[in-house]
Amino acid sequence: MRCPFCGAAETTVVDTRINDDGDIVRRRRRCLSCDKRFTTYERAEIRLPQVVKKNGSRVDYDRDKLAASFWLALRKRPATTEAVEGAITRIEEKLLALGEREIPSEKIGEMVMRELKKIDKVAYIRFASVYRDFEDVDDFSDVIREVSPRSTSRRR
């Protein structure tokens, strides 16, 4: 690591600490030439895939945009921040596990639908109505039947 003060290449680590979350390492360094101290931070560089939209354009993955989609579907619904954060984290883990450089937006949409189905059925239907571009009441009926609990006894 070069000294930011004199540019010398010879520095030594004086102190190393890991943050509370365990994902960032803070190092105090001392330059062997000018004896000045400085701090460096080390963290893993994780690159999520680019999102390929329906029109073929590519955009960087945006966690905030994904969260906004969740919260729009969950508007006025009893969902916790922890549930949404957990869902987003699971989606990001799946995206990383794929190891792809690009991913179609449709695939992310399907992942969001699976997570919303676990969190809130109404939010799932809301999201599905926009995502799948419902055109009539029958489309809603199909999704409602999909999330409705099956009746085990028949009425007489």
Describe this structure in words.
The chain is α+β, with helices and mostly antiparallel strands and 156 residues long. The protein has 2 domains: 11-43; 50-147. 42% of the residues lie in helices and 20% in strands. The strands form 2 sheets. It has a 3-stranded antiparallel sheet, with no helix packed on it. A 3-stranded mixed sheet has the order 5-4-6. It starts with 10 loop residues before the first strand and ends in a 9-residue tail after the last helix.
Biggest sheet features: 3 strands, antiparallel
Number of helices: 5
Low-pLDDT parts are 151-156
Helix content: 40-55%
Tally of individual domains: 2
SS-based class:
alpha+beta
The ordered H/E elements are EEEEEHHEHHH
> How many E-type strands?
6
